[in-house]
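To: structure subgroup
Subject: Chain for Friday's discussion

All,

I'm putting the inputs and outputs inline so they're searchable in the archive.
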Amino acid sequence: MKKITRRKFLVDAGVTAAALPVVSLAKTASYFASEPLLLWYDRPAQEWTEALPIGNGRLGAMIFGGPAGEQLQLNEDTLYAGQPYDPNNPESVKALPEARRLIFEGKYKEAHDLVGAKMMARPIKQMPYEPVGDLKLLFPGHENATDYRRELDLNTAIATVSYKVGATTFTREMFASPVDQVIVVRLTTNGRLNFTAHFETPQKAAVSNHGSNTLILRGINGDAFGITGGLKFEAGVLVLAREATTENDRIIVKDAESVLLLIAAATSYRSYKDVSGNPNVIATLQKAARKSFETLRAEHVREHQRLFHRVKLNLGRTAAADLPTDQRPSQFLQGLDPHLAMLYFQYGRYLLISSSRPGTQPANLQGIWNHLMTPPWESKYTININTEMNYWPAEPANLSECHEPLLRMVSELVENGARTARVQYGARGWVCHHNTDLWRQTAPIDGPLWGFWPTGGAWLCTHLWDHYEFT
C-alpha cells in the first residue's frame, strides 16, 4: 500500500488545515454544525462508568449529572502514588547466565522460578494513577426533577445537564479549558439557584477557605508498594456568584440566577526525577476569573475544534441516531444504526484530544479519568500493547500534536532504561519491559510470565517512525 503523507491525507479525507482553501474550512464548519455529535441520556449516571468525560489533556472530570447532587470526579495527570524510585535488582545480572542455561536446556519451569526469585524489580509493582477527589454540588429540593437530559457534545467538548423542578428550568454547562487550564461550570436558571459546594477525597488532604468564595484542597499523594508519597497537590474551586459565602469546608450560594465555578488542580511534579514544584492553583483561578464565561467558552471551543474539525466521516443516518445513546447499541447490532460507528470513531478522537496534548502526560490505561486509589492495572502505562493502541489513531486520524506526550515519554525512558540495561543485564543501550509509570520505571514487574519481556522500548519506537512518516 502506498504511504500517504499528512498533506495528501488532509486532501483525500476532506480534512481541514490552515494550508487548505478557505472554502474547505467553511464546508467543514457547515458539516459539523449540521451533524450533531452527541452522547446523550435521559437519566443521570448511576455509576462511574456511566459518567461523561471532559478533559484538556492535563485536567479531567467525570460528570454524573444528578439533579439534587452533581458530582465532578477530578483528575490531574501527574497525580500518581510514590515519588522517584529505583526498582532495579542488582541480583539479576548474577542470575542471568543460569537463567539462560535453563532456557536453552528447555527447563522452562526452573528458569521461570529463578527469574521470579532473582531478576524481578523491587518492588515488583509500579505506582498507580490516583484521583484528586470529587467536587460535590448539593441542590436541596431538586430530587423530583422532570424533562431530564444529560449530554456530551463532541463538537464543542462541552457537557450539559438540564432539567425542570416544577416550572423552573435548571441548566449546567461544563468543560475543561485547554486555554485557561481550568474546568468551567456554569449554572443558570429562570428561577433561583441555592446550593452548597464542597470537596471530598480519598487522599491525605485537608480543605481550607480562601476568602468568601474559594475552597482549596491540599494534600500529599499516596504510598504504594513500599514507596512513600512525595508529591504535593492542590485543587481549588472559585465560585463567582452574587451571594456566596464560605462555612467551614463548603461554599454556600443563595438566590442566584447564574453562577460560574472555576476548578483548578496541580501537583509539585516537575519531571520523573524532580518533585520540587509549587502547586499553586489560586493564581490560575484568579487569572481565569478575569475573563467572562462567554470568552472562556469561545476560546475553549476554538482550541478544541482546531484539532477536532480536521476529520469528518459520513456513514449515513437513520432514525436510530435520535435515540438516547445507551439505547443505540441494540439497533446497531440489527444493522439499523450506521451513524453509531461514526460517533464511536469521533468519540475516540475526542478522548485522545481530551487526554493527550503537547506538554501533558501521555494517555494512560484510562486516559486521564480514574476514581480509585487502587485502579485496575494501576491505570498506568501498559506498553506491551495498550499504550500503543491509545496512539494508533493519532496520525491516521490527523491528531499528530496529540502524539507528542508519548514521543516525549520514549525519550524520557532512555535514562532509567539505560540503568535497567546495565543493572539487570550488564548490557549497553536501554531497555524497558511491559509497563512503565509516571516515574518512567523500566525494570521487569508483576511476574516472569508477563514482566520479563525486554522489548517495550523497541515496540514504543515504532511510534517515532510513524510520526516521521506521517509528518
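Points worth raising on Friday:
Residues 1-23 have pLDDT under 50 and may be disordered.
The chain is about 30% helix and 25% strand.

D.
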